């Protein structure tokens, strides 16, 4: 584990397909500062109480959590490290990878509208593990409050000027935003077609009412029209409810129907999604939902798309 492997299709069954976990986190709270995990006052969190996450989580913990799943590589997603020095997280992760063989690649943090964005991107780019950045643009809390053009949003000219620098480094952009801002994401992707965009956590369909899911599907269809956009199927936990196929299967099937098997990828969001269910429960759920697909299509979702999109 820790290296990206390949197998011929005739050697594989659905149960032993290789996995590249396209979204996971490590943290060491004894040596590094993550405000949301280290500060005594909790932040508003979509899963509710997250106090169980306030302990170190490193590759040995992750390897314990994955159980029998054949994880052959991972992509580390920035974990809300101290925003004063986001490149320090990348430097720390290089040491983690050297010591433990994970992660296989990383996505750093950068605010496109910060004054030193060029320096931050250059700092990340010095790491051979770096593939891009994640940033959560300014967003409204509810669909009815969504407006276009807000400062710090994907429409903000200063934000876009910094975003444009990703192309120079060959970086992708991991976008975490509620689905009601995916119209702005579609325009962003159209205006910068050379920058791959990976929408995080399935577009955040937290409200599972019929009305909200209809809005979510329409938003996915809008952004899926841009060929440089992919969708990471992850982060589907619901507050106070266990991760089940009954709850999440319809969302997963709709997402794949809209984006297709060439542009969707499964990910654990561990250890955060430990609040929703065990790693094996989540990945067994993914397998169950797509069990009717040809094995080659399943392999894309679990492994091949992450291999290509994150250039492992």
Q: How many β-strand runs?
A: 8
**What gyration radius follows from the Cα positions, in whole Å?**
18 Å
Structural class: alpha/beta
Largest sheet: 8 strands, parallel
The averaged pLDDT comes out at 95
Q: How far apart lie the N and C ends?
A: 14 Å
Q: Specify the CATH class.
A: Alpha Beta
**Strand percentage:** 5-15%
CATH superfamily: Metal-dependent hydrolases
How much helix is in the residues? 25-40%
What is the oligomeric state here?
A: single chain
Whole-number tally of structural domains: 1
H/E element order: EHHEHEHEHHEHEHEHEHH
For the record, the CATH architecture stands as: Alpha-Beta Barrel
According to CATH, what is the topology?
Answer: TIM Barrel
CA-based shape: globular
Topology:
Blueprint: E1 19-24, H1 35-38, H2 59-66, E2 71-77, H3 87-100, E3 105-109, H4 117-125, E4 130-135, H5 157-163, H6 166-169, E5 172-175, H7 182-191, E6 197-199, H8 210-224, E7 229-233, H9 245-259, E8 264-266, H10 279-289, H11 295-309
Parallel strand pairs: 1-2, 2-3, 3-4, 4-5, 5-6, 6-7, 7-8
Domain Amidohydrolase-related: 20-312
Family: Belongs to the metallo-dependent hydrolases superfamily.
Organism: Microbaculum marinisediminis
């Amino acid at each position: 584990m820790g290296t990206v492997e390949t197998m011929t299709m005739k050697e594989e069954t659905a149960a032993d397909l290789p996995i590249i976990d396209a979204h996971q986190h490590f943290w060491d709270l004894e040596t590094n500062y993550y405000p949301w995990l280290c500060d005594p006052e909790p932040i508003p969190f979509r899963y509710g109480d997250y106090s169980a996450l306030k302990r170190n989580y490193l590759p040995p913990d992750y390897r314990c959590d994955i159980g029998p799943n054949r994880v052959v590589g991972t992509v580390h997603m920035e974990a809300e490290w101290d925003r004063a020095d986001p490149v320090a997280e990348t430097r720390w992760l290089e040491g983690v990878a050297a010591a433990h063989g994970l992660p296989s690649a990383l996505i750093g943090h950068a605010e496109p509208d910060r004054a030193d964005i060029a320096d931050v991107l250059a700092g990340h780019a010095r790491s051979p593990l770096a593939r891009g950045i994640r940033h959560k643009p300014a967003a409204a809390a509810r669909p009815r409050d969504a407006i276009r053009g807000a400062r710090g949003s994907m429409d903000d000219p200063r934000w876009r000027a910094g975003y444009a620098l990703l192309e120079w480094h060959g970086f992708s952009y991991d976008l975490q935003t509620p689905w009601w801002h995916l119209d702005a994401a579609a325009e962003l992707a159209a205006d910068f077609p050379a920058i791959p965009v990976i929408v995080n956590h399935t577009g955040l369909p937290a409200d599972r009412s019929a009305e909200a899911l209809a809005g979510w599907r329409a938003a996915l269809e809008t952004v899926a029209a841009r060929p440089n956009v992919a969708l990471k199927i992850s982060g589907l936990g619901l507050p106070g409810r266990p991760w089940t196929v009954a709850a999440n299967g319809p969302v997963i099937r709709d997402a794949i129907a809209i984006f297709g098997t060439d542009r969707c990828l499964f990910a654990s969001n561990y250890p955060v999604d430990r609040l929703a269910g065990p790693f094996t429960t989540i990945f067994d759920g993914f397998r169950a939902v797509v069990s009717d697909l040809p094995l080659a299509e399943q392999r894309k979702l679990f492994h091949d798309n992450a291999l290509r999109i994150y250039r492992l």
